[in-house]
Amino acid sequence: MPELSHAEYQRFLDLLDKEAIRDVIMRYSRAIDRVDSELLRSVYWPDGWDSHSIFDGPVEEFVPWVVDTLNGMIATQHFLGNISIEVEGDHAYTEVYFNAHHKVEDQDGLQRDSIAAGRYLDHFERRGTEWRIKHRRAIFDWDLNQASTSNWNSPPAMDVMERGVRGREDLVYTRAHFN
User: Which of helix, strand or coil describes residue 66?
Assistant: First the structure.
């Protein structure tokens, strides 16, 4: 195997850092959609900060706030798109495009679909060998709110479609779907 130059080796290390950061970004979406506060805490440093629309504060307050907010919704799904990562030593700065789908019940008991789209601007910090979010800022670019047209909660769809659940009972945690 050929020897790597110093520049090539540095590029390799940068790729490893970017992949570790990407993993943290993806874990955030799973934590939010499964309403998993333990997993959510693992993406932030304990002294981290989140600036998320009406919430702007320390992670220790963000986690219970967002879990309470999510528990007031029927379902969510956060889909991530473009991810830009700039590594600068032990710091990294990211821009992550998102579409966040929320199924909610309005004050009249009717289901509504709410979609928010925007970007997460993150300041990551590496401590030792681990990357986590030091500060996340959610920037909202557009939204869509409408009466739900979903028909998955009635036959025949509800009889044949396997549905995700919120919490650690979801199949992604058990891997039982492969047995």
Answer: helix
Query: In which order are the strands placed within the sheet that holds 130-147?
Result: 55-58, 44-52, 130-147, 111-127, 91-105, 75-88
DSSP H stretches of helix in the chain: 6-33, 37-41, 59-71, 157-160, 171-174
User: pTM value?
Assistant: 0.90
Over its length of 179 residues, how does the chain's per-residue pLDDT go in tens digits?
679 899 998 999 999 999 999 999 999 999 999 999 999 999 999 999 999 989 999 999 999 999 999 999 999 999 999 999 999 999 999 999 999 999 999 999 999 999 999 999 999 999 999 999 999 999 999 999 999 887 766 677 667 777 778 888 887 887 766 66
User: How many other CB atoms are found less than 10 A from the CB of residue 170?
Assistant: 16
In angstroms, the CA 23 to CA 18 distance is: 9
